[in-house]
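Good day; I would like, with your permission, to put a structural problem before you. The record follows directly beneath this note:
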Amino acid sequence: MGRNLKLTLAYDGHDFAGWQVQPDRATIQGMLVSAIEHLTGENTLPQGSGRTDAGVHALAQVASVRIRSPIPVSNLRRALNDTLPESIRILDVQESPADFHARKSARAKTYCYRIYREEVCPPFLARYVYHHPFPLQEELMIQSAAELLGEHDFTSFAAVDAERNRENLEPSNVRTIFQSQWQREGPELVYTVRGNGFLHHMVRNLVGTFLMVGKGSLTGQDLKRILEARNRSAAAATAPASGLFLVSVEY
């Protein structure tokens, strides 16, 4: 069986085709597979808490992986960081119980989405925000955020594809949202959402719909109507990946 390790990692997703291994494309999972094989000679497949999409970033993604190598966890963290590209950093490595699974054991996750509101976006921020300098009624977005709190069927905000429920592969699109909040942080308008799980593109689809509230095209009451419709076409367009961060995973 070997050891079951819990890896906590941060990454700049800009140059990667998302988390999941893909043929002939650079991915976070693929980089981890290569780094672990380089160090231990073992062919593994680290399981992430969820599959972040191309261009999405993580401050503290969690992965679980089984290895037979006896390398101490502190040495393994250092060696992995020496092997991985600088855009992926292993923050922590811990020995975990045999039944720990990064995705199945997760109880809650927090994401944030950053919108840069000034006319000129600094070039060193461009890959980490969505630059939207156009008029928005930010107060309406702030007021309407609470409409999503509680348990809802989020089908209207899930990508329509075979893997839309990719985080836990359950047939239900019902999720519970514990926190949904917009706030101004200097030149940025930031959305923070914490829930017991998220569907494919769910946060970006929520942000895209909130932007329509800010533009005056939708109201907070419309958010309830869109939820009840359970139809992706009822919601707005998907916001760009660049502004999205996986902040933390709770177990």
About this structure: Confidence is low (pLDDT under 50) at residues 162-168. The first strand starts at residue 3 and ends at 11.
